Amino acid sequence: MALKLPRTIRLDPSDTFVYLRAAEPGEWAVTGTFLFFGTDPDTLAGKERQAFRAGFLGIGSFGWSTLAVVTEASAEERVTAVEHLAEQLVAHCGAPDLETARPAAEEEIAFAQSLCSHPPNTLLALHRAGERTGIRESFRTLHQKVSRLDMATAFRIIEVDEEDGPVEEFDIRALGGKHQ
Prior knowledge:
Pfam family, one: DUF6505
Number of strands: 7
Number of domains: 1
InterPro entries: DUF6505
Strand content: 15-25%
């Protein structure tokens, strides 16, 4: 069985607005719940609250991503992810040294890996809630619906040069398909 880990993904620019720091697309990701231990979720507001409620933590930026994608990884990439997370735990979380941080990083990566029992390219979403007994996490997977109009899209993102002005495209077949 192939080794799989979650990576951050950005399907639209919303993460850059809803989080104080958005993860870069393609970073290895962990849930990041450890950053909220000892915090009363009821005291969180705004962007911190959004990170608590729905964010995966990108290891490279220590920024947040609403979604992660199941991705195949090599053993070397896993080792590098553990090491990089250990470095971040020293830099941002008060771990005294790498030797102390590595077991915690290994545990976080192992948990993230356990979320990836799905086929590659499966999207993962997370929801956290504060409860009397601690923080509860729930996860869901998001799959593309297959339909007879798979190739048709109602909206398409295209690059536009500013001097050309806005361009709009839509697929009339997709719109008409709902009424047949």
